[in-house]
């Protein structure tokens, strides 16, 4: 079987002897790669399990930062990749159209277009590239230059994308000058409401800040090309905004002729239980960026835009590898599983439904743990996009306890990832079964007891 609800198997001290050797080489030879507080060197995947070079097998609750939607080597994805690689591995999309890529565009756009409202796709290689494409398109289409992003956001590390990114200054320090004409507004975080607001009023507070402060004192609304926002904020803490915020932001954009860009790189592709995370709200953007989970780990990204917005001249933007056919084949196969054309044993009709079911279970169990452990201040999310925030006795962020819990989980065989100032994100592969989720929870319980 592809997956089974076994326990992780830790056979050596972590890191083991082989991992230690590779970690040493990595530190000597690579530039900035390794950032985790715990060492792990993967060798073999199997569903939601990863075995390291020393034979230690871990359960995966991070999916390579919300990437490995279908696990590490799903047979359906492997087959699609092999078949396409055996046909041809690359032809430049700027030279020749390709069957698989046009099909991929059609199947992605099917999730967003509406009758009478056609959309188009542009393919790149990474989330940052999709974001760059979105900024370029928004400027080109509107003839305006200013872009507004949010505090706590992450949009990537190329120049446009780091400028938009509003999380950590280390991404920007020493790299300037950045892109001109970018402003940041607070993100409506109901757990830590900005601008003196409350959980209920934080959305409206951000909207009035835009209208009454930013547009009046910093940048006139009619010079703003676009507002880019994660419909659910990822790196910033897995935060879900109030239900009416995005529809009201849409209305604000419409009043001022501003394009609305939803960065779905982390929360999209079924992770939240719906295809796009914005589909939890009654709202439609003008532009969408997608990457990460789109092809189960093969490098491909997409920028989708309304046809009425995708008005840049032919050939004005493109890239050599963007829309690579092998990656596109992996994306199509990933869509098969997400949409239920191909089913995964133990995961119901399709992986979005599975994400919702298993995510609801995990969130309910974490809320019980929050009742038991006062240092868990908040449990939030949708589907398998879940944030768990650690707080001190005053309710302030407690990154130390978060790090201790994260390491305690890792030592017991659960791969996990931080986000925000003091949260852990649960972003497992969407093929995680209820039984496997239960195994993960057992580890979480042991780890929390150990750091209490
Ligand atoms: N947007 C969001 C919302 C992201 O989470 C990320 C990556 N964490 C990016 C963009 C950048 O993606 P990439 O690392 O593929 O460039």
Give the overall shape, derived from the CA principal axes. Answer: globular
Major sheet: order of its strands? 4-10-9-8-7-5-6
Assembly level: single chain
Q: Outline the biggest β-sheet.
A: 7 strands, mixed
Looking at CATH, the homologous superfamily of the largest domain is Type I PLP-dependent aspartate aminotransferase-like (Major domain)
So how many helices?
A: 12
Catalogue the ligands: 4'-deoxy-4'-aminopyridoxal-5'-phosphate
Number of domains: 2
The mean pLDDT is: 96
Radius of gyration equals 22 Å
Pattern of helices and strands: HEEEHHHEHEHEHEHEEEHHEEHEEEH
Question: Can you tell me the CATH topology of the largest domain?
Answer: Aspartate Aminotransferase, domain 2
> Strand tally, please?
15
Poorly predicted ranges (pLDDT <50, ≥5 residues)?
none
Strand content: 15-25%
> Structural class, please?
alpha/beta
Ends distance = 37 Å
Q: What's the CATH first level of the largest domain?
A: Alpha Beta
> Percent range for helical residues?
25-40%
């Amino acid at each position: 079987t592809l997956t089974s609800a076994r326990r992780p198997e830790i056979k050596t001290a972590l890191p083991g002897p082989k991992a230690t050797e590779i970690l040493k080489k990595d530190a000597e030879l690579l530039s900035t790669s390794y950032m985790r507080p715990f060492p792990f060197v993967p060798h073999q995947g199997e569903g939601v399990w990863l075995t390291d070079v020393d034979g230690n097998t871990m359960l995966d609750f991070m999916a390579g930062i919300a990437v490995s939607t279908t696990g590490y080597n799903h047979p359906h994805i492997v087959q699609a990749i092999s078949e396409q690689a055996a046909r041809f591995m690359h032809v430049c999309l700027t030279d020749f159209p390709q069957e698989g890529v046009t099909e991929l565009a059609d199947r992605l756009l099917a999730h967003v277009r509406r009758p009478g409202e056609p959309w188009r796709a542009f393919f790149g290689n990474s989330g940052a590239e999709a974001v760059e494409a979105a900024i370029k398109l928004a400027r080109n289409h509107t003839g305006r230059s200013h872009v507004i992003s949010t505090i706590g956001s992450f949009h990537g590390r190329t120049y446009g994308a780091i400028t938009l990114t509003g999380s950590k200054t280390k991404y920007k320090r020493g790299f300037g000058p950045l892109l001109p004409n970018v402003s940041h507004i607070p993100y409506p975080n109901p757990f830590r409401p900005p601008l003196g607001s409350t959980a209920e009023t934080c959305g409206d507070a951000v909207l009035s800040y835009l209208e009454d402060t930013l547009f009046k004192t910093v940048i006139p609304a009619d010079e703003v090309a676009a507002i880019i926002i994660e419909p659910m904020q990822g790196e910033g803490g897995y935060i879900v905004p109030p239900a009416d915020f995005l529809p009201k932001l849409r209305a604000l954009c419409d009043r001022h002729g501003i394009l609305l860009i939803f960065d779905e790189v982390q929360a999209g592709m079924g992770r939240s239980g719906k295809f796009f995370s914005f589909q939890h709200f009654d709202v439609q953007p003008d532009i969408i960026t997608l990457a990460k989970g789109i092809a189960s780990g093969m490098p491909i990204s997409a920028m989708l835009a309304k046809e009425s917005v995708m008005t840049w001249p032919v050939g004005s933007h493109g890239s050599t590898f963007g829309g690579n056919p092998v990656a596109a084949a992996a994306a199509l196969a990933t869509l098969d599983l997400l949409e239920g054309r191909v089913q995964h044993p133990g995961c119901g009709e399709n992986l979005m439904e599975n994400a919702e079911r298993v995510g609801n279970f995990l969130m309910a169990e974490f809320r019980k743990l929050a009742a038991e452990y006062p240092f868990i201040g908040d449990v939030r999310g949708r589907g398998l996009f879940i944030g768990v925030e650690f707080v001190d006795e005053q309710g302030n962020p407690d990154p130390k306890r978060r790090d201790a819990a994260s390491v305690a989980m890792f030592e017991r065989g659960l791969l996990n990832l931080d986000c925000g100032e003091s949260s852990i994100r649960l972003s497992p592969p969407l093929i995680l079964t209820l039984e496997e989720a239960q195994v993960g929870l057992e580890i979480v319980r042991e780890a929390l007891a150990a750091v209490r």
